[in-house]
Amino acid sequence: MKNKLINITILLFVLTFLPSIAYGPGKCKGDSEYQQAVKKMGGFRLIKDYRVSLSAEKEKGPTSMAFPVSLTSGLRYKFILINNPSNKSKMIMSIFINENKEMLIASSYQSTTNKHYPSIEFECGNSGTYYLFFSFEKAFKGCGVGVFSVSK
Amino acid sequence: MKKITYKIVFYTSTLLGIGIINSCNSSSTSENTNSLEEQLMIVDTSLEIEVSKEEILKLIESFPSPIEMASVLKKNQIEISSDMLLPTDSINRFTTSYDKAMALGAFGSDMGYLNIYEKIFLIPDYLESIVTLSQELDLDGFFDFIAMFEMAKNSENIDSLIQMSTVSFNEMEAHLREKGRDELSLLIVFGTWLEGASVISEIAKKEQTKLMFNRVAEQKEFVNNLNQIFESSEDDYFNILTTKINPLVKLYDEISIEVIMKEATMEEVDGQLVFIDNSETIIHANDKTIMQIINKTLEIRNNLLK
């Protein structure tokens, strides 16, 4: 009887914690984060989701993930960020006009106020290809999901 | 509500610097089992320019969803009619897997318009075409067609149908990319673009407004990028596409697009940041050239898809 209880306890422990170990920073699957983000779209329609996972050891390896995205003038877009609960710091999403990060257009993090925003809206004035950059504040590891949506 | 001046930047738009492989030899088969990426890696060493896999994926990944342009048109209260879209009869006119991939993209584009304009009575026919083409390409596993047909019965479900279609096409694209079938991905994207460009052209031809002429001109970047990738392929099919879209590229060369990035405004509304981009796009083009572009686009679309 005692052995059975121990086995059940071990099984429950494994079932509870294994997924978070398996999909911790660097191995983030992001399905639950994606579901949360979709629920926050409100009056916007899904275009794409970005599964972000960074596991660099300090400065070694990539410290951000970049994705090209076409935006159309006259449309309002919403970018929603959901962090994995195990993240030690918050995910930041920034929009640049090119992949060399030459000109910042918008960001979910404002360094002047040290404030993070869970979502940003962007009303596009110029159709073209932009770059979304995902990173983590003062950290090189973390995972989460970014959802890109367009106004209805 | 807090208003903050965000940034002042000025720049003139430049095209994405995608290199060109000026391939001299074409393959003898119309459908090659090698991925486009593999074909593109076979580069004549005497040539210095090449298209990397990254550039192809960038184009595929950054391609706008058809629901975006449909949303722009609807916001401007522009009507679309069903005769602007592809006919759904005789789907067997698409014989090769390349033709089918292009058609799948085109019907996906039409679905985007039908969904946004809530023309639910037409949706089943277009879904039927997507079922057939995706089955023939062995890509039907990404679509829950039973649920989609059910949703298409009621306009109240249209948002769910749009979301399900978007997710299905995104997953299919990711799968093709994972399997190295970039050529199919590229043709799906090309079909999506061509059909969307055709709808814009039809409306622009009818309305002849600055708004619509500008939407036609905005296609320049994508046409050039596509052309450079097609040109670099050794596959006969892509060479034929190059021949077909080259006259369009030449017409687009006659117009220039100047982008002036102006002060963007950042507002905090109910705890959320809202960025209002005040940048301007100035299109230098005469109406005659735009009309020629419109007619050429329609000619290419009708030749390849209708």
Structural class category of chain A:
alpha+beta
- CATH architecture designation of chain A: Sandwich
Main β-sheet, spatial strand arrangement of chain A: 1-10-3-8
Structural class of chain B, please? mainly alpha
Give the SSE string of chain B: EHHHHHHHHHHHEEEEH
H/E series of chain A, N to C?
HHEEEEEEEEEE
Low-confidence stretches of chain A: 13-26
What's the β-strand tally of chain A? Answer: 10
DSSP summary: helix tally of chain B: 12
Please give the most extensive interface between any two protein chains, plus how many residues each contributes: A-B, 38 and 43 residues
Distance between the termini of chain B: 52 Å
Describe the strand arrangement of the main beta sheet of chain B, using strand numbers: 1-3-4
Task: Give structural notes.
The complex is a heterodimer of chains A (152) and B (306). Chain A is α+β, with helices and mostly antiparallel strands and 152 residues long. Chain A starts with a helix and ends with a strand. In chain A, the strands form 3 sheets. A 4-stranded antiparallel beta sheet of chain A has the order 1-10-3-8, covered by helices on one side. Chain A has helices spanning 2-22, 31-39; strands at 44-55, 64-71, 76-83, 91-96, 104-107, 109-110, 115-116, 119-123, 128-136, 141-151. Residues 13-26 of chain A have low confidence and may be disordered. The longest helix of chain A is centred in the first third of the chain and has 21 residues, at 2-22. Chain B is mainly α. In chain B, 56% of the residues lie in helices and 9% in strands. Chain B is built from 12 helices and 5 strands. In chain B, the strands form 2 sheets. Chain B has a 3-stranded antiparallel beta sheet with strand order 1-3-4, with no helix packed on it. In chain B, a hairpin with a 2-residue loop joins strand 3 (264-269) and strand 4 (272-276). Chain B is globular. Strand 8 of chain A pairs parallel with strand 4 (272-276) of chain B.
